[in-house]
Specification:
- By secondary structure, the protein is mainly α.
- The radius of gyration is 10 Å and the shape is globular.
- The mean pLDDT is 96.
């Protein structure tokens, strides 16, 4: 699974996220590529909610 596909699954607009928060996006993308998506979700659960509110996929 690609990171942008994962973000879409979590209802996060990857394009706006990448444009507005490029450092966080790249950090998360690198981590996502190293671990299982479920582990990533467990590690970033509360942060994902904040990002989802800021960059909600419409």
């Amino acid at each position: 699974m690609e990171f942008d596909d994962y973000l879409a699954q979590k209802n996060i607009n990857a394009v706006f996220f990448r444009q507005q928060e490029p450092e966080i996006y790249e950090e998360w993308k690198q981590l996502f590529e190293q671990i299982h998506p479920e582990s990533f979700t467990a590690q970033k659960k509360f942060l994902l909610n904040d990002i989802r509110r800021k960059f909600q996929l419409r």
